[in-house]
Amino acid sequence: MAACEYNSGMGSFRVALVAVAVGVAFADSSIVVLALPELYTKFNTTIERVSWVVTAYNAAVAVAALALVVLVHRLRATTVMAAGLVVFMAASIACAAANSLWFLVGARSVQGIGAALLLAGSLPILTALTRSAVRGATVWTLAGTFGAALGPALGGVVTQVLGWRAIFAVQAPLAALGLLAVVAVTAAPVLEEGWRLSLARAAPANTCIGLLFGALVGVLFLYVLLVITVWGYSPIAGAAIVSILPVTTLAARPLERRLPRLTAVYGGAALLALGLLALALLPSASVGFLVGALALCGVGLGLSIPVLSHAALDLGAGLSRSGTLTIGIRHLGLVLAIALIAPLLASALPPAGHRAELRATAVLLDARIGLTSKIPIALAARGEFARAQAGEIPNLARPFDAHGAKRDPALAAARDDLIATIRDTITRAFRSSFLLSAAFAAAGLLVALLFRGRGVVD
């Protein structure tokens, strides 16, 4: 790879622009999840259909990246990344302008193809800009890890402040800025020698990465459904809670540098599994318990993913292809986990909804309020449960508030008891899905233990 003209000031600025583009592309795997309830209402659709806004992007990245593996080494890195940025920018604008769910899903698929191209081209470009394969890979890995962790929090803030369309609108100028860095680089194609050997060497590391990213479905997607749809938090409040994930991911960085690499991988995978297990055992709608579990997940992510990413990358002749392969494996892990977890959750929610209705009825019957209030509230609450069975998000506070709960302490207490009972019952319905997410992390730990020293770390 040809070295580029490099001065510390301008070179650092260009590195930062490319790193931002990499972080945005990885963040897009989950950046829209806190906007799903708003999209659900906007397009009057079902939870299963609106989830395709997330799945389509990750599937497109995985398929495009795996297809690129066979030819990316024959293309100029600048051409690949520039094409990716242009496609990503155009698709982001299309997403922001979408007026139907399926147009948005289609635009997200195109955006995923652009992301795969820009991520594949960015690694050799960062190497050229930093004039070091090690430094370039470090920037690429940290930008990707932090971007993936930051996605939900960033999306939640933007959704509540500016609306869901702004999530995509702000990405277009960021992609345009990335082009400024790309045009300043002249990166020659890489000669791929011995890459098949490096592929075999990095297979355990890539397998671990895929499994750990699959485990992140529990943090990036199940968490959002639980906190926004079940617990009733606003997107910005959900973003504040989930911000513990990127904060602890970044905080784990100094520890990751000091630990032996195998220890960092083992400890990171174990902490991620432990955090997801804690989410599965949530006793109630407890924010404190949730924050602690997310902190464990964040530290686990920060310890394990950077080490595994370095092990999966061939910092010599096979840089382009090994980087593109690990991009595909990461997103393949996400898609596989979603494909397994979504139907598991869908099968657990209807019986949980029935149990919640029965328990809510008992709470209402036992409430110390008059029959003249109980009967109309019960009828109105039944209508809210009917909305939930039809796939809509119910508002169970509405029947109480309509009958004076804001002024009557007894009605307010009955309302709060009923809502808490329903939240706790539905929260427990997420248990099997969080356990499956934890199983992905445990499988990653098992792979690391089986292949210790033989490809899990370099």
Model description:
The chain has 458 residues and is mainly alpha-helical. Among the domains are: 190 residues, Growth Hormone, Chain: A, CATH 1.20.1250.20; 82 residues. It is built from 21 helices and no strands. The longest helix is centred in the C-terminal third of the chain and has 48 residues. The radius of gyration is 23 Å and the shape is globular. 54% of the residues are buried.
Helix and strand sequence: HHHHHHHHHHHHHHHHHHHHH
CA-atom Rg in angstroms:
23 Å
- CATH class category label of the domain at 1-190: Mainly Alpha
Overall form: globular
Instruction: Kindly identify the CATH topology of the domain at 1-190.
Output: Growth Hormone, Chain: A
Largest sheet: none
* Number of H/I helices: 21
CATH architecture term of the domain at 1-190:
Up-down Bundle
CATH superfamily placement of the domain at 1-190: MFS general substrate transporter like domains
Beta strands, count: 0
Name the quaternary structure.
single chain
Portion in strands: under 5%
Q: Output the structural class.
A: mainly alpha
Residues in helices, as a percent range? over 70%
Mean pLDDT: 81
For the terminal residues, how far apart are their CA atoms?
Answer: 22 Å
Question: pLDDT under 50 segments (min length 5)?
Answer: 1-7, 187-194
